[in-house]
């Protein structure tokens, strides 16, 4: 009996090991199959341009390396142009080169990009959380606690700079940010918002009304609803690294009545730029204006818009006769346009803010939000954007509580969900590089040189270049009401183009608010400087491919009675 039991036990142990081994082999085989399928999709979207890739172009243009700039001004229509417009005849084509093939292929690419996007976000979050935990234990509360004060979005208690960090805000983070900008006080509200300023009201609120825990620091209070936990940080300013100095804006013709134009002024013998800037900073004004011994503080306004600069020699004081003045930007932020909220009633018109990735969609959202005072939504959820104040990221994209909705989608179904759209277009060379940087280094980083020189970059261009073209073509075909905005035009003529966008959204804003947006035009998601490369990232084959797409999109725009692509798009 004992021997039989021992044999049974030995058999079961072997069976258990065998089952474990088979299960592991099954899982490994499934993983390899999944990886192989993903690789196949990437390879299908990354294959050579001549047979599988290029959009069809006007006759005579295939294989062109350098395109005549005149072709952009007066492109010749041809029977092989792939536009996807109802007004154009689609000739019988090889199935591999047909519009249906392009649409199907780019649908696969959109799905692939979604997986890339969500994988990138999920990879970033643990890194951010780990970094925060490492800093959390070293954070110390500095400065002097002044108390709990009331705050109103229409009339801020602290009128200086404003910062958001909806997941990682701490008392120290806010204090250091305000100290770096030479402010005296730092105030925290809603557990995630930081406000800076130099003046406090005479009376404080009840201490228990500041009851919101800091999003990034358990056990610490960061204000409350319409309440600020305020710290005095002046003692930190001496050791704080000044993130930005006073910026020279230029020489401008002085308004006729400086006293009426500027709310604060100072007359001082031997006046210096530092003296005037310090005076205006304490008064919480973003502009310091110097005319002789006079120092004036204020904002850009209709009377003084800072649009028409004069020759700097006119401000030398020799021949100006008091007609010209020097203008400097102080460390104080212009906060006349920083208040934002959700729509109080659901929008009747569902508006998309559509662009190819890397075309400046986040920057356009920053401009729209500050111009209108309302949040923009997103078809996706980007935690990095949400943390920095884009609260519409977390709102459901179909809630209609936002002024417009960011999307990179194309295709008939996705487009026809919207009643109208602002279509933002950027030079594909710039867009591809910007999106590649974001994909491999986040919103503010730059991809490493070794990544640019690896096979990832040519695969990316081959996959994404056709998407740049098909994105515009789809919106031209299926969009119900479109406003075309070129990124380069918006950058060069911000106020006129922003007015077009605001009017398209059926909003009315004041000139002073638009001037405030112009004064805060950069936003929080602009890469610092232009990182120059010591090599050309685009090969001749890549240029030939992208140039054909540029011509195709240019002709499609003209076919719909829109202006063609800017001259800056002329292929290099």
UniProtKB/TrEMBL annotation:
Pfam families: Sulfotransfer_1 (PF00685), WSC (PF01822)
Annotated TM spans: none
Alphabetized InterPro entries for the sequence: P-loop_NTPase, Sialate-O-sulfotransferase, Sulfotransferase_dom, WSC_carb-bd
One GO MF term: sulfotransferase activity
Ranges for domain WSC: 142-234, 245-337
Entries under PROSITE patterns matching the protein: WSC
Keyword Lipid metabolism appears in the UniProt entry: no
Highest rank taxon of the organism: Eukaryota
Key words of the record: Repeat
Family membership: Belongs to the WSCD family.
Protein name: WSCD1 protein
Species whose genome carries this gene: Bucorvus abyssinicus
Phylogenetic placement of the source organism: Eukaryota, Metazoa, Chordata, Craniata, Vertebrata
């Amino acid at each position: 009996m004992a021997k039989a039991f021992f044999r049974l036990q030995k058999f079961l142990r072997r069976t258990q090991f065998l089952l474990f081994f088979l299960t592991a082999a099954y899982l490994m085989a499934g993983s390899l199959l999944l990886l192989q399928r993903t690789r196949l999709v990437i390879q299908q979207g990354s294959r050579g341009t001549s047979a599988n890739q290029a959009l069809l172009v006007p006759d005579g243009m295939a294989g062109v390396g350098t395109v005549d700039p005149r072709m952009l001004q007066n492109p010749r229509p041809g029977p092989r142009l792939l536009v996807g417009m109802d007004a154009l005849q689609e000739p019988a084509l090889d199935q591999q080169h047909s519009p249906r093939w392009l649409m199907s292929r780019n649908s696969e690419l959109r799905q692939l990009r979604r997986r890339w996007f969500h994988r990138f976000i999920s990879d970033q979050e643990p890194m951010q959380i780990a970094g925060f935990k490492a800093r959390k234990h070293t954070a110390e509360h500095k400065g002097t606690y002044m108390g709990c004060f009331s705050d109103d979005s229409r009339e801020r208690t602290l009128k200086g700079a404003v910062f958001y960090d909806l997941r990682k805000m701490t008392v120290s983070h806010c204090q250091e940010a305000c100290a770096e900008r030479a402010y005296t006080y730092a105030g925290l509200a809603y557990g995630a918002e930081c406000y800076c300023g130099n003046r406090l009201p005479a009376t404080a609120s009840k201490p228990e009304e500041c009851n919101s825990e800091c999003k990034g620091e358990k056990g610490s209070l960061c204000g409350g609803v319409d309440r600020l936990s305020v710290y005095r940080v002046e003692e930190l300013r001496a050791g704080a690294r000044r993130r930005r100095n006073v910026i020279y804006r230029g020489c401008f013709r002085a308004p006729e009545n400086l006293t009426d134009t500027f709310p604060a002024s100072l007359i001082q013998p031997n006046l210096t730029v530092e003296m005037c800037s310090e005076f205006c900073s304490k008064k919480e004004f973003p502009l310091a204006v110097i005319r002789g011994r006079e120092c004036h503080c204020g904002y850009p306004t209709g009377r003084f818009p800072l649009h028409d600069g004069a020759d700097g020699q006119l401000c030398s004081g020799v021949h100006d006769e008091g007609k010209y003045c020097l203008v400097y930007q102080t460390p104080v932020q212009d906060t006349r346009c920083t208040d934002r909220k959700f729509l109080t009633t659901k929008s009747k018109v569902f508006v998309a803010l559509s662009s190819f990735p890397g075309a400046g969609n986040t920057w356009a959202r920053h401009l729209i939000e500050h111009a209108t005072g309302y949040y923009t939504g997103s078809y996706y959820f980007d935690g990095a954007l949400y943390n920095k104040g884009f609260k519409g990221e977390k709102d459901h994209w179909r809630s209609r509580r936002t002024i417009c909705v960011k999307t990179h989608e194309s295709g008939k179904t996705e487009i026809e969900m919207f009643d109208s759209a602002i279509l933002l277009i950027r030079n594909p060379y710039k867009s591809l590089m910007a999106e590649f940087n974001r994909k491999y280094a986040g919103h503010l980083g730059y991809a490493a040189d070794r990544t640019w020189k690896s096979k990832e970059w040519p695969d990316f261009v081959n996959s994404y270049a056709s998407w740049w073209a098909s994105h515009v073509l789809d919106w031209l075909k299926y969009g119900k009401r479109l406003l075309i905005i070129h990124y380069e035009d918006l950058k060069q003529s911000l106020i006129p183009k922003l007015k077009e966008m605001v009017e398209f959204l059926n909003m009315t804003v004041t000139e002073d608010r638009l001037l405030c947006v112009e004064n805060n035009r950069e936003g929080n998601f602009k890469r610092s400087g232009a990182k120059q490369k010591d090599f050309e990232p685009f090969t001749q084959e890549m240029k030939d491919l992208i140039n054909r797409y540029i011509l195709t999109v240019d002709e499609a725009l003209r076919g719909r009675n829109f202006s063609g692509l800017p001259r800056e798009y002329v292929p290099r």
